[in-house]
Design brief:
Length: about 400
């Protein structure tokens, strides 16, 4: 098991990695993402698993006949955020293959079909919508809307899909495939400190906080940075700056029950010596309760609008994506807890394909692997090799529990 994990880790280590920073830039359908997909297909072939690419581009490596139904599905995603870490996503996919390897070495024969899945475009780094592959699969993202989404170079998803040799008209909910999934288990690096604090290598997920992405468009008037008196300006950057401060303050006032982040802005025309005409800024907001999230976003939008009035600018807000709260399947979690014995059960404020499948009614569980830095979406994200192998062992135990064949 440790050999197969190590070999896979080495094989993907340099794919899409920025050698200057150590960060990964694997965005849906870019060269690095395509190379990761080729790697996934090669690993399926090496194991004699049947590769199936669904209409939304998600890759499935099947052990057994999918038509038999009630499949146990393991996996995660292979794309990254800009300058992301090595573990968010790939750890779940590699660990799934490694878990099957360890069981096959023991002669394990499953009594139901098993698949390892690579969900396409989980981070939404290119087109802005997270978990696009699983949302399209489950009908949570309208295919027409998806096809029209644009990347930062102005290319639509439809154009990008065609260039990648895919047929954009095929996007959409796939009832046949969904009907074959009995349950889904996603292993993921932890994106916080809980397991470090509790002294455990592996934990079980209980729930995902509701969260969403909200685009604010601030508009003002471009003008000269030297000759325009301060009182004559209509500067949308000021309105944005106050909005970012207000969002941070409002989230902090919840006492740890909410998060608000502006991690991406675009400024036009973007000259050092010009007052900008327009600022686009994306708010990522999350909270432990749906009502708290709603109130947070409403308050930030109201404060932004009031400030725009004072700055003589204007602002509009569009909700680009919304993910409801998710509580993972209790029966699945309690069977897994029994099997794994004494593992902590922890909530997360991060989004996952497991959340999308769960919201679509598929029994779903998550396993988390300790991250000593507690940092994620950054090259600092980490997991010790022994903890990764403990995660693989937990996944293998999960396959034994749910796909119960004889050894
Ligand atoms: O953004 C998220 O929560 C996740 O890591 N995709
Ligand atoms: Mn992520
Ligand atoms: Mn992830």
């Amino acid at each position: 098991m440790s050999d197969s994990f190590a070999a896979m880790w080495d094989a993907v280590h340099d794919i899409g990695r920025n050698p200057d920073t150590g960060g990964y830039n694997r965005f849906v359908w870019n060269d690095a993402d395509q190379t990761m997909r080729e790697w996934f297909a090669g690993e399926a072939a090496n194991r004699g698993l049947d590769l199936y690419v669904d209409r939304n581009g998600n890759q499935w490596a099947w052990w057994g006949d999918p038509a038999a139904g009630d499949a146990l599905v393991l996996g995660s995603h292979l794309d990254s955020v800009p300058e992301g870490g090595a573990y968010d996503g790939p750890l779940g996919v590699l660990s799934s293959y490694a878990a099957l390897d360890s069981l096959r070495t023991k002669g394990f024969r499953p009594d139901r079909p098993i698949a390892v899945v690579n969900f396409v475009d989980e981070e939404g780094s290119r087109f802005g919508i997270s978990c696009a592959g699983s949302r399209l699969l489950t009908g949570g993202l309208d295919p027409e809307r998806a096809r029209a989404l644009r990347d930062r170079d102005g290319r639509t998803m439809a154009e990008v899909l065609r260039r990648a040799g895919r047929e954009p008209g095929e996007l959409g909910r796939d009832d046949e495939l969904l009907g074959r999934i009995g349950c889904f288990v996603e292993l993921h690096v932890e994106q916080g400190h809980d397991l470090v604090d509790r002294g455990h290598a592996v934990g079980l997920g209980s729930e995902i906080w509701p969260h969403g992405r909200f685009r604010f468009d601030f508009t003002g008037e471009a003008n000269h940075a030297g000759t325009t008196r301060m009182e004559d300006r209509r500067d949308p950057m000021l309105t944005y700056a106050m909005t970012a401060l207000a969002a941070n303050k409002r989230a902090r006032l919840t006492g740890g029950e909410a998060r608000a982040t502006f991690g991406r802005i675009e400024v036009e025309p973007g000259g050092t010596n010009a007052v900008p005409s327009r600022v686009q800024a994306w708010l990522d907001a999350r909270a432990s309760e749906q009502s708290m999230l709603r109130e947070l976003v409403e308050t930030v939008t109201r404060l932004a609008t009031e400030r725009a009035g004072r700055d003589d600018t204007s602002v509009t807000m569009v909700a680009e994506s919304a993910s409801p709260p998710v509580r993972f399947d209790r029966a699945l979690a309690s069977r897994l807890a029994g099997r794994l014995g004494g593992v902590p059960v922890i909530p997360t404020a991060a989004g996952h394909d497991a959340g999308v499948l769960s919201a679509a009614g598929i029994p779903t569980a998550m396993l988390f692997v300790r991250n000593p830095t507690g940092i994620s979406h950054s090259p600092e994200e980490f997991a010790e090799r022994d903890d990764c192998l403990a995660g693989v062992a937990a996944l293998a135990a999960c396959v034994e529990e749910f796909a119960g064949g004889a050894t």
